[in-house]
Amino acid sequence: LTIHPQESVTFVGRTGVGKTTLFRLVMGLIRPAKGRIAINGVNVADIPHTEKRRLFGYVDQDFHLVEGTVADQIGLKDPSISREQIEEALLMVGLQEYVSALENGIDTDISRGTVFSQGQKQLLAIARAIAANPPVLLLDEMTANLDSITEEKIVSALQKVSRNHTILSISHRLSSMIASDTIVILENGRIKSAGSPEQLLE
Questions:
Q1: Are 168 and 136 in contact (CB under 8 A)?
Q2: Contacts of range 96-99, beta carbons closer than 8 Å, 24 or more positions apart
Q3: Residue 175 pLDDT > 80
Q4: Does residue 179 carry a pLDDT above 80?
Q5: Which tens digits make up the pLDDT trace of 75-131?
Q6: Is beta strand 190-195 parallel, antiparallel or unpaired with respect to 182-187?
Q7: Could you give the CA distance from residue 184 to residue 170 in angstroms, rounded to a whole number?
């Protein structure tokens, strides 16, 4: 499988087929038994873990809060991520207005309890993933537990984000797949078929 820059690809398949394992392989967290995964010709297994946040943004169903402020949730206290980048990420996912209305804006401490709904946490997770402006975003079933209205907001935020990123996602929902350029159906750890949403629906 070859994925092109700024292409949006959704992987689908039954539970246990290897979708999350594929993401771990793409990020170089585990090594393939054979073959290789390369980004611009560089084997991901050879990329130092310290460089991974510059390369990959990862979002799954569970957003884990860290101790500290709203800004800390996005920048993860990384000194190389500026306030401007944090604010830009909030703007991109549509949370800037909500956060600005908090007592201390992005400096509001949320350690003692969250002021964010489940859907807003998922938008925060996207903001965290894009703050360092990585070229590749990996989205693992991130809308699985959300209602359709909240999912629509997230898909809309992702469509904005996708203009500058290559997006790989795992999804069971048709609404998320329609926004993709390519759908890849996995079966028994292999690609069964791949094509545009229209081709696969036919």
A1: yes
A2: 99/70
A3: no
A4: no
A5: 999 998 999 999 999 998 889 999 999 999 999 998 777 688 888 888 899 899 989
A6: antiparallel
A7: 10
What backbone phi and psi angles, to 5 degrees, belong to 157? -60, -40
Nearest to 174 by CA among 194, 150, 155: 155
SS3 58: strand
Model confidence at 174: pLDDT above 70: no
Residue with tokens 């079933």: 141
Paired strand residues for 57: 137
Structure tokens at 108: 């509001």
Amino acid at 133: N
* pLDDT higher than 90, residue 27: yes
Smallest CA-to-CA distance from 132 within 202, 191, 85, 183 is with 85
> Considering the entire predicted model, what is its pTM?
0.83
Closest CA to 62 of 20, 108, 110: 20
| C-alpha angle 161-166-169 in degrees, rounded to nearest 5 | 85
Of the chain, the percentage scoring pLDDT greater than 70 comes to: 94
Beta bridge partners, 184, equal 11, 194
The pairs formed by 98-105 with CB atoms below 8 angstroms and a separation of 24 or more are: 99/70, 102/70, 104/69, 105/70
